[in-house]
Design a protein that fits this description.
The protein is an alpha/beta fold and 203 residues long. 38% of the residues lie in helices and 21% in strands. The structure holds glycinamide ribonucleotide. The site of glycinamide ribonucleotide has 16 residues, from helix 1, strand 5 and helix 7.
């Protein structure tokens, strides 16, 4: 039976789109995107879900009163939809150890650098590429990893390197990292999970 996938988003949702396209093209084997959850009601990702007939929900942290209530709301939705895999695709909210512990090796995240460089608290979105350019690294990339209680600290599943060009701005670099790395390795990792190929540590 297909694994049911929930995708958690906050913004544009280009990684969600890559997953939708990969599902249509048969790149994701044994998996189906069954739910999109956004913590931002104006996220364009919600429109992408709607256009593709995927159920979606909005859960806003400040409307929930506490982090615990926010996460409880998300957990009820995940249970209600019988979700097997949670994908953080540009989800700009750090989840507590209680949450990550409840879904051990069932949450994956895409991060726009080669972890352990330019990751952890404060490194998200464009900031990651600003930091890579400021440091002067010649190669960056993207990482897909399991999510544990340490921000960007879980076991690495896939990585892909991307060359930095002389005239790159954070925006041009972000775009190249997305097209050359994120949009490829995220669907690949999701498929590996759904095919049961990530069951053993170190595999
Ligand atoms: C992506 O580059 C993703 O890797 C990054 O935010 C962007 C979201 O774009 N995530 C992080 O920085 C998480 N630490 P999208 O909404 O178009 O997929």
């Amino acid at each position: 039976m297909n694994k049911k996938i929930a995708v958690l988003v906050s913004g544009g949702g280009t990684n969600l789109q890559a997953l939708i396209d990969a599902q249509k093209n048969g790149i994701i084997k044994n998996g189906e995107i069954s739910l999109v959850i956004s913590n931002n009601k104006t996220a364009y990702a919600l429109e992408r879900a709607r256009m593709n007939g995927i159920p979606s929900a909005v859960v806003i942290r400040k409307d929930c009163g506490s982090q615990e209530m926010f996460e409880q709301k998300i957990i009820s939705l995940l249970r209600e939809h019988e979700i097997d895999l949670i994908v953080l695709a540009g989800f700009m909210s750090i989840l507590s150890a209680d949450f990550t512990g409840a879904f051990e090796r069932k949450i994956i995240n895409v991060h726009p650098s080669l972890i352990p460089s330019f990751c952890g608290k404060g490194f998200y979105g464009l900031h990651v590429h600003e930091a890579a350019l400021a440091y002067g690294v010649k190669v960056t990339g993207a990482t897909v990893h399991f999510v544990n209680e340490i921000p960007d600290g879980g076991e690495i599943i896939l990585q892909k390197a991307v060359e930095i060009k002389k005239d790159d701005t954070p925006e041009t670099l972000q775009k190249r990292v997305m097209t050359e790395a994120e949009w490829k390795i995220l669907p690949e990792a999701v498929s590996l999970f759904c095919e049961g190929k990530l069951n053993n540590r170190g595999e």
